[in-house]
From TrEMBL:
It comes from Halomonas saccharevitans. SMART domains: S_TKc. Its EC number is 2.7.11.1. This is non-specific serine/threonine protein kinase. It is an enzyme of class 2 (transferase).
């Protein structure tokens, strides 16, 4: 039996869609240098994201093993912190023709999009910041000290009114989720900062001694300032 990466892209899509159709209709797909990402729609507010490793047939066996090791590292990181309400979690892992896919629920919006919609009320900015800090503190207590890719695009938000029966006068509008843990602790393991940028405190980036307490990630006043 052929592996998924040995098949043409159109056949890959058919196989993935057939395997994951229980989550709804396939409505979107995209790829990054290392991932295949499919979006399924199962209801008005029920969207599922399936993220799989992107393997090229031309890759060497060593490169494939490296990608699978990275995927297992990501799964482990996500599993460690999957029980906190302000951390984006996966609900299932499905191996399709040799490729593992992480399944998680798609949230309504990213923090980047929310900020771009216009000024955020001070109470909402404080609420979002507090939720993020609670999530990061939980992760730090679980051993994930350096997220390394913490940015507005990796913080997801849900509109509470879309998912819960609350009135228009409810003081808090958004529920926050910290996401994308695939590079968490990579600096501690590989001794090199990764991610879109090395999102670490300057003293961690320039001179890390590995002693004492270490911030999981810096949630500086800029977060609140950008949101408000």
């Amino acid at each position: 039996m052929k592996m998924l990466w040995e098949l043409p892209e159109d056949i890959q899509k058919i196989i993935v869609e057939g395997r994951l159709c229980k989550n709804g209709d396939l409505i979107g797909e995209m790829s990054t240098p290392h991932s295949m990402i499919y979006t399924f729609k199962g209801g008005d507010v029920n969207y599922v994201i399936a993220k799989g490793i992107k393997i090229e047939e031309s890759m060497s066996l060593a490169d494939r093993h490296a990608l699978f090791s990275q995927a297992l590292y990501e799964v482990n990181n996500a599993h460690v912190v999957c029980h906190h309400p302000t951390v984006q979690r996966f609900f299932d892992v499905d191996v399709i023709s040799g490729v593992p896919f992480l399944l998680s629920r798609k949230r309504d919006i990213t923090l980047r999009d929310f900020i771009c919609e216009g000024p955020v009320p001070e109470s909402e900015a404080l609420s979002i910041s507090i939720q993020i800090i609670h999530g990061l503190n939980y992760c730090a207590n679980k051993g994930l000290l350096c997220h390394q890719d913490l940015k507005p695009e990796n913080i997801f938000l849900d509109y509470i009114s879309k998912h819960f029966a609350v009135g228009d006068d409810h003081p808090i509008k958004m529920r926050s989720f910290v996401a994308d843990f695939e590079l968490a602790n990579a600096y501690l393991v590989l001794r090199r900062p990764y991610g879109s940028r090395p999102y670490m405190a300057p003293e961690q980036y320039e001179k890390f001694q590995g002693e004492g307490s270490l911030d999981f990630s810096r949630v500086d006043p800029g977060l609140f300032m950008r949101a408000s």
